[in-house]
Amino acid sequence: MIDDDLDLLAGFRSEVPAPDAETARRIYGLATARRPRWQVLLPGRLSRRRRLALAAVLAGLVLVPAAVAFGGRLADWFHGKPAPASIRQDFVKFNASMQQLAAASARAGFIRKAPEAIAAHAHGVLALQTADGPIYLWAAPRRGGGICWLAQFAAAKESLFTSSCDATWPPGRRLTFGTFGGASYPSEQFIFGRALGRATNVVVALSNGEKTSLPVVEGLFIGAFPRHVHPLEVASYNAAGVRVSVFGTLAGGTAALSSAERGALSRVSARGKPFPLPLHNRFVRGLIASGYERTTVLLATRADRNYFRFPLTNGRSAFGTGRVGLPSVVGEIVGAGTPRFPAVDNPLLDMSTVGATQDSRRMRFLHVGGIAADGVSRVVVKDREGRGLLWLPIRDNVYDSGTMPVPAGAVQLDAQDAQGRTVAHIPR
Amino acid sequence: MRASFEAAFAAEFGPLYRFLRRRVGADGAEDLAAATFATAFANWERFDGVRPVRPWLYGIAANLVRHHWRDERRMLRAYARTGVDPVLSADDKVVDRVDARARRRELAAALAELRPQDREILLLHAWAELSDSEIAAALSLPLGTVKSRLHRTRDRLRNRLDPDGQSQVKAAIGAPEEQ
After folding, report:
1. What does pLDDT average to over chain A?
2. What span, in angstroms and rounded, lies between the C-alpha atoms of A113 and B67?
3. Over 70: is that where the pLDDT of A69 sits?
């Protein structure tokens, strides 16, 4: 009979039971809960390549080093606690945004691949009580292996999160971490990250001479430290006390630098040219409303890219880049919050484009460019084994690969000073 | 007149959830249903209320399921090999005839071998009960393309389920997973 196949198919489906009222209620709550703050990190006006680069940054948790001091404020009771509906919904929305980014990258000819958290299995990992309120670190398994995580600033007026997943690039990194802080939790800075290789604790050495140890739970750690200090070294250890991985800004720490060298790594002195922002542009009006001056500074133009310093009304600066002729002027802005730039432990503001092509499915640098502090003399593009592929000079505090094709194996960058010492490394 | 989001959820959640659970299992269905309705909720004000809601929702869901086609194929193949339906839990009471179960194993094997978009069209037709024009709207495809692909896919399925096609089905069951 002609409809036999359809009858058989319909029978197939009819075995699946209807969802119960509790499931419906839960999913309705997930779908309609408040919009998480991290979505503002993904403005539609970013170009596809920039969005891809931003996705790679989010997926890799490539932030900036810092340190920690606590005093027993980590809560054990939190580990394993099932995540509430609002947190699972944040994971679901994180997945949706990652998929949108992947779709955008696919349309641009890159690989369509997005990390995906299994939101139904989200659970608590660590809770940290800070001077401004608790920070909860949640995790969920990542489909295909690894985990995704989400840091929730529970006392923030607006829903405030930062979320990410284990990255497939760069491979084999056993210690990744970042620092953050801001208006919602103004009293301290925070560090959180991922320590793999069976690490059980992470030791952070601070510029004020303190050292502190943070427990690693499910490969994650979190802590807080005073705003006026910066980290010199972060190292992870296993249960036997053997060091698994170490991250230092410079061999011997930045304390090894002279005060003049430290100063040179903490400033951007290119004067640039005044560049009035187009006030008719909605994105620009949004910037001005959020504290940007009406006239920015064009530091340099390389090939088809402009590099800017954005003076803020509070006296600080943000930096950004955008293609020449872009209506909104800028496609990517790195704000003036933490991690602070330029700073001795953060002398390179890299705004390179990362992605993979159909020809070569490995993530790599597609274009290299960014802003460097005065003390950086050149940026070396390297392959996985650390071999130099491309040497980019710094002019007007800007480095850019321009129209030069970036070699296929380019996966890391070293910022070097005039003595050839590496003062910053990307990814951190 | 545009329905409220609440009304649309009440009307469409059950069928959509079952559609998704049949395709990707219980855990995946919860996440995908939540993501589908979260996307719809976020875009509700921009949605043209004159258009029917169902194809729009299933279009969103189809985009999400697309990322799970390997999982779906793995489950269909597992069902074909073992006769144990991976999308049903032990608590799900299923009364079934043995001969129908055997036919479904063959059907699962045949579905597993379809191209993802052909399977999408067929299952939107058979499980979501969308009309050809609703499928066209959901997948942003021309109506003629939907009709011809559906016709061709059903032909292919019938050929596989035909007694003469059994050897092909068995070969499909035994085929290794593609990476």
Report:
1. 75
2. 9
3. no
Distance from CA of A282 to the nearest CA of B (A): 19
> What is this structure's pTM?
0.42
Q: What is the pLDDT of residues A173-204, one digit of tens each?
A: 677 777 666 666 777 777 878 888 889 999 88
The conformational region for residue A386 under phi > 0 = left, psi -120 to 50 = alpha, else beta, is left
pLDDT digits (tens, 9 = 90+) for A256-314: 677 888 889 889 999 999 999 888 887 788 788 878 889 999 999 998 899 999 998 88
- For A102, the token pair is 């992947």
Contact A132, A186 (CB under 8 A): yes
The ipTM is 0.77
For B93, other C-beta atoms within 10 Å of its C-beta total: 8
Residues A355 and A366: beta-carbon distance below 8 Å: yes
Give the model's pLDDT for residue B102: 67
Q: Which of A13, A93, A116 is the closest to B127 by Cβ?
A: A13
Q: Which one of B6, B20, B23, B30 would you mutate to disrupt binding with A, by most A Cβ within 10 Å of its Cβ? A: B30
Residues of chain A with Cβ-Cβ distance to B34 below 8 Å are: 27, 30-31, 88-89, 92, 119
Nearest CA in chain B to A89: B34
Q: What are phi and psi of A173, to 5 degrees?
A: -80, 130
Least CA distance to A21: which residue of chain B?
A: B14
For residue A211, list its beta bridge partners. Answer: A205
> B-chain residues within 8 Å CB-CB of A95?
31, 35
Chain A contacts of B27, Cβ < 8 Å?
A: 118, 120-121
